[in-house]
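Repro:
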Amino acid sequence: MGNAKIRVRNLPLPRLMAVVVASSPAMAKDGPAKPDISNEIIVTAQKREERLKDVPVPVSAIGGNALLAVNQTRAQDFFSSMPGVNLQFVNNRAQLAIRGITTGPATGNPAVGFTIDDVPYGSSTGQGGLFGAAPDIDPSELARIEVLRGPQGTLYGASSIGGLVKYVTVAPDTRGFSGSVGGGLNMVNYGGQSLGYNARAALNIPLSQDTAIRASVFTRRDAGYIDNIRTGRDNVNSSNVTGGRLSALWKPSSSFSLRLSALYQVRDLHGSPSVDGRTGAPFQQTDQIGAGPSHSEVQMYNATIKARLGEVDLTSVTAFSRNSNSDRIDFTASPLTLAVFPVVYPAAPDFGHVMMTGYSVDKVSHETRLSGTLAQSFDWIAGGFYTREKANYTIDSAATNPLNGAIYGYPVVWRDSATYEEFAGFANITARLSERFDVQLGGRWSRNTQSMIHREWTMLAPDPAPAAHRETNPQASGNAFTFQVSPRFKPTSDHMIYGRVASGYRPGGPNAGCNTDPAEPVPCQFKPDRTINYELGAKGDPLNRALSYDISLFAIDWRDIQVTQVSALGTFTYNSNGGKARSRGLEISLEARPTDRLTAKMWWSYVDATLRQGFASAVLYAAPGDRLPYSSEHSGRFSLDYEAPLRDGMKARLGLSATYVGDRKGEFVPSQAEAPLRQTYPGYVQFDINGGLSFGKWNANAFVQNLTDKRGLIGGGYYNQTNFNRYWFNLIAPRTVGLSLDYSFGGGGDEHLSKTHAMRPRAVPRRDLDGRRRRRRA
């Protein structure tokens, strides 16, 4: 059921932008009259097409073109305004923490999973170099993004202990020739005359009644606003992203379809987004010459088969992906620099340290699942999953001349090759016990094996002395069982109460620097960690949908948490386990629609994510009760959206929003003496405003992001393991002003882009309240 469809006919604009979290209980075949679902949003959070309000999982969803209208074209733009989600940064890439389940960037294996059309994205391990970074896909090719909060181990497997993000792309459409073109310009404060821009085009071509192809391309430049006073370069943090997608659909009958897709994207960041707090001026940095640039490429190829086999639905998803990244990071302040470089280059008057890292992951994955209904009372889904990943990781630590960037040499060189392989089987069943009450039960068993070849060369004496060479071959393996239980009860047709107990699993893995040296011991393997989520929620759409509410109370127990430590001599980092943690919280979402033209929305999130057991090694310290890194105890958002018809078919809209991100703590510190110095990120409020006009097939939009030019801290500071410089910070982008314009042509399914906020109604199988598809018999 890979590509969900959306029914939103005649829905007023603001409701299309709403972030909805809903689920509902089952109804028997002879229950209350079936409602008109033509206005419902259909999602695939549970790997089958369901109305959003029927899903017993906390889910937020938004359409891709709603993101374009307010210039949310980057991953961090969208996720920064989601309930229960906090942003981190590692190696110039956005990383997410959901409900506080994180111990910092580049720590252990990914805690949040990502899929693109049901294909797992990135690496299952930190050795792949992505560290759980979010895909940076242009919204023009996204039908929607779904964010599932809480562990999703039963249906989605490893590395989703905090939650999961699903990207659903726009599918080819056989109903007619169509296309769209669009673009925009923006200017960021402190960027001088530097402009950002974006341009995109898409074409849908039916080749016959049962075959269609869709092709799209886009390019984007994000203007820079940070000046490097060491090199004299301005706006160094500008970036360029270019990509395209080709998809083909063959559907010879209502019981069989084949969809092939290919995605390619390249991203170049020209300088670090960090600022140096010692300069005394906003948006300045002192990166070493040669540090800062980052390059990444993403390729993904997948084939999805859907078939109806009697009373059983079959879905098969096979994919190959390749992710490659290279970064040049200023590591001058790291312990490695201070421990090794003065010994190797004693004659150098001064030196910098530019760490050149390279990552690549080749990933093959396959999933086959079957689903159906038994005796009109049990819906079931069962399947198997396999993945094999080959990752390569390189480090070249260059000692440089800070005056001209000349390289003295490479005191430390690493070459790692890692393999990850996993088999899993899963099943889920929904038992309808009455018209208004059902229970979902699910389980997943998985096994993974990992191996690594680690080679390193370290210069321990001045050139031309030979480098010390070491080679290790650490291995790891593990089994896991995850489960979920979700009872649902609907006292009336407009209200629902649900419970959820679900577990998540993150695999352990080998450590590259494995050794038994008493001066610098490193374990050869770190253990997996697990979460269990206990949740109670109430949701509904009373007053004929003029009001919507969603209240969720949760508690997550986390044990054997994975943490990253620095070796005793400060020459490298490795992973270990650190006891127990807990996240408890409350999430409330409300939406009021007093008229068809006006919508008011708000959400508020309280997350208390703390350690239950402290740890005190030679190089890492935390006490019981310490907050987990990067999680806001309080966060929230309020917005107003107004739409008004004008003459000659024109429509105008205006939107205002305020997003609050509360205080957060930075990474854990090396020792108890440094505990008072642990970084604190103050809370901040970001105001945004946007408006637009639609006339015929044209849409024009204007926006101002960060209206008050707030300096919101979102990363860096004391003991940041990505650069070890206590004075470097990451900030939200300053005030950004922009315009966009798009035009659509033809008919059929490409109206994904034809209306700025509208999501095209599509033919979705009509369902009973319990989501069962009406079966046609031959």
